[in-house]
Specification:
transcription, alpha+beta, HTH_AraC, Homeodomain-like_sf, DNA-binding transcription factor activity, DNA-binding, Jelly Rolls, 5-stranded antiparallel beta sheet
Length: 303
């Protein structure tokens, strides 16, 4: 797989204009203009850059992953360094909006360098883009316009700090708008929890638990239409618990049933549930239930 270590090399590969700054590029469609379109297709590639793009499709239908979206109202897409990118001629369109690309080293020595990993949406899939309202779109575009003005002017010793500060503001607004999107998509949130639990049911009933142990969240979400990070953030917003916590609760519920069998030791129960170490099972059970597996068994044993 081809990997691009510099922003210039990456943009050259995309057949886009060279950047004004070796570690930062800003493309913005103003007036009747359109964003420059990258090359028509590409095999899987990676690079060391962050990308933030607002896509407003003027012509054509847009497909990302398994989902078709109407992006005419604006969708904000975030891509992290070393994320695998691939596209074909079906995703080349005339577009308005903007595209910010900056090398990860551009943030070195800044507070944002330590904070950017906290913005989970860089780990979301393309079909989990942030769909902006017209008002939100104007707010984001105003920030990008400020970045673009600084980018186009003669850069000096203050430019980087100013641009990084504006990038930080943009990301904080995106965080706020994603919270709104989670709230507005409660039906999707509930559906995702149901799908998540169905995948757990499928895994447990298949006998894989005994063969492979407790599944990872990545394994469970492989069959879901969203990424691991998006699922966890959605469930956290809707239920107050992450996907990992929901998995643990599922295991505890299963444990409660098995513990009522007096012929099985606590260690046997732990191994049956896929725990490699019975002591970890006991600690988790007590943390979630407030009493140990043995105490639970004594309290609820059949008379």
């Amino acid at each position: 797989m081809q990997h691009f270590k510099t922003l210039s090399a990456y943009l050259e590969y995309l057949e886009l204009p060279a950047p004004e700054h070796p570690m930062l590029s800003v493309f913005s469609a103003t007036g009747d203009g359109f964003l420059p379109c990258p090359k028509e297709s590409s095999p899987p590639i990676t690079n060391d850059c962050y990308s933030i793009s607002l896509k407003k499709v003027v012509k054509g239908n847009l497909n990302y992953g398994r989902t078709k979206y109407d992006f005419t109202n604006g969708a904000l897409i975030f891509i992290a360094p070393r994320q695998v990118l691939q596209w074909d001629e079906s995703v080349v369109y005339e577009q308005k909006g903007f595209s910010l690309n900056f090398h990860e080293d551009f943030l070195k020595g800044t507070e944002l360098a330590h904070q950017i990993n906290k913005f989970g949406f860089f780990s979301y899939s393309a079909n989990e883009a942030l769909h902006l309202s017209p008002k939100e779109e104007k707010q984001i575009e105003a920030i990008v316009e400020s970045i673009n003005i600084e980018y186009q002017n003669n850069q000096d010793e203050f430019s980087k700090d100013i641009i990084v500060s504006q990038l930080s503001t943009l990301l904080k607004y995106a965080n706020r708008f994603y919270e709104r999107q989670f709230i507005n998509r409660k039906e999707l949130s509930n559906n995702l929890l149901e799908q998540f639990n169905r995948q757990l049911d499928k895994y447990f009933s298949s006998g894989l638990l005994q063969k492979q142990g407790i599944p990872s969240i990545e394994q469970i979400t492989a069959e879901l239409p969203v990424s691991q990070r998006y699922l966890s953030d959605t469930l956290k917003k809707e239920t107050g618990k992450t996907s990992t916590e929901h998995l643990q609760l599922y295991l505890i519920d299963e444990a409660k049933n098995i513990l009522l069998d007096p012929h099985k030791s606590i260690s046997e129960v732990a191994y049956e549930l896929g725990f490699e170490y019975p002591s970890y099972f006991s600690r988790l059970f007590k943390k979630k239930e407030g009493l140990s597996p043995t105490e639970y068994r004594e309290r609820y044993k059949m008379n």
